[in-house]
Amino acid sequence: ARLSIEATPTSHTAYSAGRYGRDTGRVSITRCDDLTAARWIEQRPEDWSRLAARGPVCFDRYARLRILPDPSYPGQREREAHRDPGALHDTDQIGVVLAELARYTGTPDDCHFLVWDGWPSFRPDDPMPKISIPNRDYFLFHGTLADFPEWNNQIEALLDDNDAPTPAFVWPADRAWCVTCDVDPHFATIGGSAEA
Fold first, then answer.
1. Residue of 82, 140, 173, 175 with fewest CB within 10 Å of its CB?
2. What does the H/E/C string look like for 102-137?
């Protein structure tokens, strides 16, 4: 079963239609209590820190999306990094990547999103089940790639919060690729085929 919320897109409708190939006029991102689709992440043999930061080791190629500029000197803290004031938010940068990856999956309307349970958006007594890897627990969400431009609005409404967390893992049902963005590194990792 899935808990869902629906809304009418506002600012990202044209982006959604242009980048993802369709505009449904409504968006639906859901929380999942059936974790079957995420068990493959939970059962990965990689060290937890490698898995959480760089994703599963099962793809032909990997790329890195720098969310913040790389450190310019040893010991530089993230808050000290120069970030262009017009830079896209983390989730928006992930959205650009997902828009490009949409053509490299046969299941763009069946995608999964894991979100780390340590974000303040989640209450400690949240009744939804989680999947776990050492040192990380995640809630599972489901939606389409066309839904992603409305991620922030949908998740904020779904969680009754004003700050939507960035997803830690995103993958289509056919597992053609996976985007991983842990809370600690300043980058996301994209795993996929050589074509993607």
1. 82
2. HHHCCCCCCEEEEEECCCCCCCCCCCCCCEEECCEE
